[in-house]
């Protein structure tokens, strides 16, 4: 591989890998607290993208129930400039976080209070995903939307340089995605590692019953976890939508599955693991040779399968001791 | 009668087929192994049948065997699924719980992407114009092959449960370490249960390819994994009737809700949520409880929260 190609792949891999990382963090946070996998996370990802889309565009042309409704007759206040677009992204992610909280209240908490089989939580969260995806389809149509990327789309590449006679192009949106992801990781790392909320969260993750004995309101911290999870998932959805310029009702399905591969690769429940796993899978996909690009979607699952056989606890997972 | 069958026959056959796929997941679950691999073997079986029934390379075989070729597709699908099940099962069944579930999801996805990109599986388009089994004129006639398979599978499952093997599987489900200590080799039994499920899913696939007339990579997806898991959990995972009832009902619900038009898939999702919240033992489990009055006593204290311990 030529050096220019190598650098290009590296940059592409880092950008997409960092989105995988923040998406997968949402999964892993919930897993570390509840020990369940929230299969609705992929749907929350899609929702985040649609919320941002709604704020920026404000109307839907496709054949859904909302067809023809214009939310902003005088033009959306969120379109046009990078700053307002960023505000819409933030609000979209908050919206996704609130939906995740709602999911917890309606689909997980009743089950938890009854001590039901955690497997049922799997089915329940899948039911929620079905409801969300089909509601989106009903309201705004099954077609794929061109995601507004005018905030960054027309800006010139952030960086382009010649390496060994070939041009390497790093798109602005890639830089933005990478930067936003890094900032999110730093904030999350700070919140979980340094603040009182983070301390309580870690206590709940360690042992919910002990935490509640110590006066921590477990239910409240589970809600906080779900909000963070939904926020990260929704943010990832908008970032991916902006990077690729499209969104559709089934937008999150592939990401939902790849996110699973990411968290298992890194180590279920491990936050640094989710970041490492995201970057590894992003880079591995970016380096798939063009001739085999059809197999790109299998890369994450091949890595998942291999890691499960070689090191089931994942790259950074703790070596669990089996209970007798 | 014929009117009824020609109207609802397709649905009835699909309900039986769903029950069979539910049972294919039920076998490994009997040993406490949550495997979501069924759609992978189902897809494999379907491709085996589709290729043997349409590919020019097998024209001579088809001419020589006549209708026997349909039976041959079931046998070949069963053997190949069993072998692949063995190859995947031996390493994968070292994993437990959610890890096994994720490994089998990965297996299904890898198979899907591979089948999407091979030429003899028809790529993204798939395989078309698969001839009808035994020259059936109507779709409902598939009851004649799916029905006996369901009865045989149920008989087999009942006999298995009553046998030494069935007791070993249950022992492993309840406590693998204790079973191991008592001299029940967990790995062998777990692989056996997994392979039985794989063979069943493969045969169902081979029967389904002519039934659906076309076969493509959409047949074995993650969505199917979850749908089949829902059949078992909503129906009831502790009784052979659970997967059958769950599969039949969850297949019928979207049809019954057809009058709701576009809302029916939303309702379908809600059904999953509500059923998993209010029928934790599944429908069959709840019915059994009702039959076995006295009513269960409420536990004195709420059960502990699930903790996030990691069990590789």
UniProtKB/TrEMBL annotation, chain A:
Which superkingdom is the protein from? Bacteria
Subcellular localization(s) per the UniProt record = Cell membrane
Instruction: Return any one Pfam family short name.
Output: BPD_transp_2
GO CC terms, sorted: plasma membrane
What CDD domains does the entry give? TM_PBP1_LivH_like
According to Swiss-Prot or TrEMBL, what is its membrane topology?
Answer: Multi-pass membrane protein
Question: What GO MF annotations does this protein's record show?
Answer: L-isoleucine transmembrane transporter activity; L-leucine transmembrane transporter activity; L-phenylalanine transmembrane transporter activity; L-valine transmembrane transporter activity
Per the record, the similarity remark reads: Belongs to the binding-protein-dependent transport system permease family. LivHM subfamily.
Q: Please give the name of this protein.
A: Flagellar biosynthesis protein FlgM
* Annotated organism of origin: Deinococcus koreensis
Taxonomic lineage of this organism? Bacteria, Thermotogati, Deinococcota, Deinococci, Deinococcales
TrEMBL record, chain B:
Subcellular locations according to the entry: Cell membrane
The UniProt entry, under Pfam families, shows:
BPD_transp_2
**Keyword Transmembrane helix in annotation:** yes
Q: Which UniProt keywords apply?
A: Cell membrane, Membrane, Transmembrane, Transmembrane helix
Q: Name one GO molecular function term.
A: branched-chain amino acid transmembrane transporter activity
Residue ranges of the TM segments: 6-29, 41-59, 71-90, 140-157, 191-212, 224-253, 265-287
Q: Where is the composition biased (Pro residues)?
A: 293-306
Provide GO CC annotations from the record.
Answer: plasma membrane
Which parts of the sequence are annotated with region: Disordered?
Answer: 293-312
Q: How does this protein sit in the membrane?
A: Multi-pass membrane protein
What is this protein's record name? Branched-chain amino acid ABC transporter permease
